[in-house]
């Protein structure tokens, strides 16, 4: 009996020893399964999608058609609604010394946009280059002919005044036409337009590269369109925000309803040939041939060229497309006569 007892105790000790060894080994094995490279790969691919007109990353899909809206910039139309949600805004002369905006929305959906003004050929060409739905209220004779020929999908306030387009009571015509994003979608359904045409993407630099941008210092820039200074605009870099603020004259550009300021990551100024083509003062503007420009980013300015790449105006430096900083862009087009040197002035940091 004593021998059997000794044998049983020996077996129990052996089993206990094996159990202890197994208990020690299991945590080591689990620790090896969690590796640092997997975490780095997860961080690297945190954004599976990117918006084509801002370069900003997103966890959800970023496809969908852009909407290009003609926005009034007459002094009686300021401040406007919806510009703070635009991915890109093109500012170009219409008639006389008044500029007009083509505000392009894709990554954000504004609740209300306006005041809306009439179409011009060169704005339509820019919208077409982005495969955008074009929103306007009226049109020039040249633009009317293009629309009749089906040049671009559009919604016209002259057709839908009082239905899709609403008149604001606090402003007088022609500075009081507005459209909501909800009504744009109603118009799309009514006209049976597709909203699947995602715009071609611009070239953007990695976010970390924006901190390495070099160039000439320019704390602010002013753009003058005429001696009357009616459409003068300026952009001031806020180093704290890392953004540009826009001003019309001395008034900062903000959203009418929310009072949110226009904050920009790229200011792209180009010169192009302007010609008066009729007694009404309508213009022809060459946005095809390319030319000179300035690109402002992160408080620096660089001289660049611009070219038309399949309907899109892009900056070029040393023969290559110069990337935008990720975010919102404002494009000012000035006449070659008087040209960049007389139209654009910089305030340099002291």
Automatic annotation (TrEMBL):
Annotated InterPro entries: DUF3048_C, DUF3048_N, YerB-like_sf
Signal peptide bounds: 1-22
Species of provenance: Neobacillus ginsengisoli
Pfam families, per the entry: DUF3048, DUF3048_C
DNA damage recorded as keyword: no
Positions of the DUF3048 domain: 53-193, 223-331
Record protein name field: DUF3048 domain-containing protein
This protein's UniProt keywords: Signal
Record's keyword annotation contains Signal: yes
